[in-house]
Amino acid sequence: MPYNGKITTSIDPENLWKVHKFLQNVKIENADFATVLKNAKKDDFIFIDSPYAPLSSTSFDAYTNTGFNLDDHIRLANLFKQLDQKGCKILLTNHNTPLINELYKNYKIEVIPVKRMVNSVGSNRKGEEVTITNY
Fold it and tell me: Whole-structure pTM over 0.85, yes or no?
């Protein structure tokens, strides 16, 4: 029983069935991004929601047992460039940081204001993220 005592149906069975049909020929992989993206082809659309660059020295970055460090961000930016050269359409999201702006300075960067709900101080909940595209 849900916390508020009300029983609700949050899943639309018809939509779930449509998603089921759509995913029949989709391959989902759990691997390093370079491994997953090595087979990308011209005109593929690729959405990359990688671990975000830290906003400070205390920012969470333990997405894996080894973290996602500066070398990983550089490696991802190099792969982004390779995918662009292959003719893939790419959309990447991240924090609006000097590092990310430098790594992707040759691409279209759009700043998006966001609210972060995990900060206990309300005035610190505002932030900026970016979408980076090659199209």
Answer: no
Domain 31-133 CATH (choose: 2.40.170.20, 3.30.200.20, 3.40.50.150, 3.40.190.10): 3.40.50.150
Q: Is 5 left (phi over 0), alpha (psi -120 to 50) or beta?
A: left
Q: If you count DSSP H runs as helices and E runs as strands, how many of each does the chain have, helices first? A: 4, 4
Residues contacting 101, CB < 8 A, separation 6+: 109, 130
Q: Please report, for the chain, the start and end positions of each structural domain, with discontinuous segments joined by +.
A: 31-133
Total length of the chain: 135
Note the pLDDT tens digit of each residue in 118-128: 656 666 678 99
Query: Which amino acid does the sequence have at 58?
Result: T
Give pLDDT tens digits for 41-96: 999 999 999 999 988 776 665 656 777 999 999 999 999 999 999 999 999 999 99
- Residue whose pair of structure tokens reads 């370079």 in the numeric block: 34
Q: Residue 25 carries which DSSP code?
A: G
